[in-house]
């Protein structure tokens, strides 16, 4: 006797919607699935056609979940997790361990990924799954082993340990300031165009006050959604951006940007290595923790040697 016919949406569209709903940007969702942003958008529209209701509001700067989208996500996410767990339980053991790590995309691209070759050489038995996102993920709910988070070190339901310090200084393309001033001044601030990272909108005001200067006027600024974008625009010679170490190190080391006013100063924030509170880490998770801590210690040891002046 056959059971009732199941009404199921296309699974590819379901995965695309889940990825977009759990990342802040389609770019991050696309990277997590190995797809293009247009493919993510196409699959979500396909799902909306099947459901005959909009799941994402595209009227703002970034797509956001509609009320129906939030309700749908809450219902399908536990089911997707159960499918994932059931699939892994049936797959034959490979002798390898998987560790899932979430971290900001900027830190992943500029600090972690260039070092991954060393990790793979030291730990060939571990499959490391990276989840780059600016969203603060619920580690226990989303079954994520570790996170590197940027902030002050206090988040609910996680155990956090200091990993990387963050320092900042203005940066620009070589030749943008000619001649290069030895110290920042009100006159210099009035002559340059400032590039603002919209996720840290007060960074220029804080820097100016720390150097005894008046905060810059808000007009004629270039505001961008991410630190990498701000650095790219500065590299193109369009203004002065706030460079934050360790993310900006690659630009400085390759001479794509210079720090005209010299060494960086502390921002008050840092990167912390986090794990779900009350959940014992796996053996593979502990090995990744030790490797990340050692890599961060090596970076701190070498941080003072990086050239920050033209």
How would you sum up this structure, described in words?
- By secondary structure, the chain is of the alpha/beta class.
- The protein has two domains: 11-90, Orthogonal Bundle (Arc Repressor Mutant, subunit A), CATH 1.10.10.10; 97-310, D-Maltodextrin-Binding Protein, domain 2 (3-Layer(aba) Sandwich), CATH 3.40.190.
- It is built from eleven helices and ten strands.
- The strands form two sheets. It has an eight-stranded mixed sheet with strand order 4-3-5-10-6-9-7-8, with helices on both faces. It has a two-stranded antiparallel sheet with strand order 1-2.
- Helix 1 (11-21) packs across helix 2 (26-33), helix 1 packs across helix 3 and helix 2 packs across helix 3.
- It is globular and about 75 Å long.
- The chain starts with 10 loop residues before the first helix and ends in a 7-residue tail after the last helix.
- The model is unreliable at 305-310 (pLDDT under 50).
Features:
310 residues, Arc Repressor Mutant, subunit A, alpha/beta, 20% strand, 2 domains, single chain, eight-stranded mixed beta sheet, two-stranded antiparallel ribbon
